[in-house]
Write a structure and sequence with these properties.
150 residues, alpha/beta, Nucleotidyltransferase, domain 5, five-stranded mixed β-sheet, 3 helices, 23% strand, elongated
Length: 150
């Protein structure tokens, strides 16, 4: 009985090895890329960095870039110069994606937000349909400190 169990185990191992070799040669078929001619550019401008996210209509992220990704360090990432360089990169990506219509959602209060919008509006080959400010605005605010009693 012990011999038959060992033989079954050996056969099972042989089959799995053969199966792996057989499957190794096959390649997965990938779907073709669908060109969607429009999407959204999210610009997040903070005090320390500016981040661009290219997304399709549903919000699925296609690509992104930030100040650190283009090689800038420290406070240079939040400058209008950095935003302009990132905007050039975004425009190139959109040209490759063959986008014609773009919506821009801007958030934050950093220096790069106006530079990015200005550059996109003047030098872009695509049409900007909407520029929307999605910055979070506090209403009500935090609770005030208690009054001092003398």
């Amino acid at each position: 009985m012990i011999i038959s169990v060992k033989k079954k185990m050996r056969d099972k191992q042989m089959f799995s090895v053969r199966d792996k070799v057989f499957l190794k040669g096959k390649k997965k078929e990938r779907g073709k890329k669908v060109v969607v001619p429009e999407g959204i550019i999210h610009i997040r401008a903070t005090a320390n960095n500016t981040i661009f996210v290219i997304a399709d209509r549903r919000g699925k992220v296609i690509d992104w870039i930030s100040g650190g990704r283009i090689g800038l360090k420290g406070p240079a990432r939040a400058t209008p110069f950095a935003a302009e360089r990132m905007t050039r990169w975004v425009a190139k990506q959109l040209r490759d994606l063959q986008w014609k219509v773009v919506k821009i959602w801007v958030g934050g209060f950093g220096q790069g937000r106006f530079a990015a919008i200005r550059w996109l509006s003047k030098r872009s080959v695509f049409r900007i349909v909407l520029v929307k400010d999605v910055s979070s605005v506090a209403f009500g605010g935090c609770r005030a400190k208690k009054r001092r009693r003398i």
